[in-house]
């Protein structure tokens, strides 16, 4: 289970954007996180991805409270959580080919290259793998980012508004791919979106914050 307990977080200690929030993501389940713009959904998602340090509260991964955030997050916890962001172009070096994007986590962790297998999993065909990020569509790049997020077989996947830039059919395809990964591995998913209709269809339960 990926658990947030009593999380108060934000960007200025005197003005937290979320206060005393509890949230748990069970293995195999999808929890939707909804709320108006500015309510702190992304902030909570970043805390639960260990990318942002809360002012107070704890995050636990499979029963162990994590001891640090960002570069202080222990590797064994960090690699259990895959993250997919809203704007793939901001999270990818445009000079990299999609193959390099997908291979990066394995390379950085000294593991065998699974780029072909991962590309197949997200339905990116051969010729696209050789193209650079600036030569593919947002949807194709987001598929590569999904493959990158799944490269180390995370037990949890945090998707922060991952479909905002995409059309309905690409959104449905990505959700289908994530469901397939969940069926195969029993991963838990935290899906952040301001699109309540999408979350009702996608998630097993939806948590509303800030309204
Ligand atoms: N890096 C940052 N530095 C300072 N303030 C920030 C930062 N990131 C977000 N904020 C502020 O924190 C508040 C919550 O932002 P957050 O992105 O978590 O909300 P959200 O619910 O995800 O919003 P949206 O649906 O618009 O993405 C907002 O007022 C935002 O302006």
Automatic annotation (TrEMBL):
Coiled coil: none
Gene3D superfamilies tied to this protein: P-loop containing nucleotide triphosphate hydrolases (3.40.50.300)
This protein's UniProt keywords: ATP-binding, Nucleotide-binding, Transport
Pfam families tied to this protein: ABC_tran (PF00005)
A GO term for molecular function: ATP hydrolysis activity
InterPro entries with a match to the protein in the record: AAA+_ATPase (IPR003593), ABC_transp_ATP-bind (IPR050319), ABC_transporter-like_ATP-bd (IPR003439), P-loop_NTPase (IPR027417)
Database matches in SMART domains: AAA
SUPFAM superfamilies tied to this protein: P-loop containing nucleoside triphosphate hydrolases
One BP term from GO: transmembrane transport
Domain ABC transporter residues, every copy: 2-211
Domain of life according to the entry: Bacteria
Protein family according to the UniProt entry: Belongs to the ABC transporter superfamily.
Listed PANTHER family: D,D-DIPEPTIDE TRANSPORT ATP-BINDING PROTEIN DDPF-RELATED (PTHR43776:SF7), TRANSPORT ATP-BINDING PROTEIN (PTHR43776)
Protein name (database record): ABC transporter
Organism expressing this protein natively: Kibdelosporangium phytohabitans
